[in-house]
Design a protein that fits this description.
Two copies of one chain form a homodimer.
Chain A lengths: L5 H7 L3 H12 L2 E2 H7 L4 H13 L3 E6 L2 E6 L1 H30 L17
Antiparallel strand pairs in A: 1-3, 2-3
Helix pairs in contact in A: 3-4
Chain A binds a DNA duplex through helix 3 and helix 4.
Chain lengths: 120, 120
DNA sequence: AGTCGATGCAACTCAACGGTTGCACACCCG
DNA sequence: CGGGTGTGCAACCGTTGAGTTGCATCGACT
């Protein structure tokens, strides 16, 4: 699937080291070993992070000679951003509607038992 | 602080249960106990998640009588979304520039020094 | 008043995750 | 050709985090 679930995408972005990697790869494509040289973690750790990032499409890898260079995919981040924005807006809308209902007791307040428990 | 670090925000969103909670709270404000009734986890677990979400500003809580109702803050999600989009675009731009340089070795490859550069 | 339900705090379990080390193998350069 | 470098796989470890249970408390509604 080209569109991983939101929690998975966010989880991939929920690690500082991964952001560090993404930042570097966003500036310039490079190999895992190269990343390990500039970051304070081992090459293997970098490798695991790259696998996670590649799994959600935030990183793409390309075999160049004997090396494998990785690069950050900004488009995927953009997709995530739009999704989050959409959801956020929907929340705002709902809350707005709720507040309006609360302030205008005449608009469809039927079926609301006074002093009784509606649910369970 | 009103703007938690990106990794922290994403980490908060990197959990399926938390998304479940946010979804419900986005539809309708409710208490931890109420959430525990509709979700397959204990009230205490819900409480911990709410604390995490509140810590990054994705949830706000209001004491209503003896209950504490929580609600999802869409605006905060929007802020995150804009941030991610910005970063994603910057990645795309860099890559584009790199590709151009690779294909046009004559286009001002000498001195760089453009002012006002501020990467993360 | 009495009870039921909501909350808060604390201790504990268990799995996932980040990170490391070690090793084997492939490839490029000198 | 040989060493050095880049990579992949696997075992291992410490910590974090999600989730649970238990207990004590406080407030609301009957």
């Amino acid at each position: 699937m080209t569109a991983p679930a939101l929690p998975v995408m966010c989880a991939a972005l929920g690690d500082a080291t991964r952001w560090e990697i993404l930042t570097r790869l966003g500036e310039e494509p490079m190999s895992a070993s190269a990343l390990a040289r500039v970051l304070p973690v081992s090459r293997q750790a970098i490798g695991k992070h790259l696998e996670v990032l590649r799994a959600v499409g935030l990183v793409e890898s390309e075999q160049r000679g004997r090396e494998v260079v990785h690069l950050a995919v900004g488009a995927r981040l953009g997709v995530l951003a739009r999704e989050l924005d959409r959801i956020g807006r929907s929340w705002e809308t709902r809350l707005l509607r709720i507040k309006e209902l609360a302030e205008r007791p005449d608009s469809g307040a039927a079926g609301e038992g006074t002093g009784g428990r509606s649910h369970d």
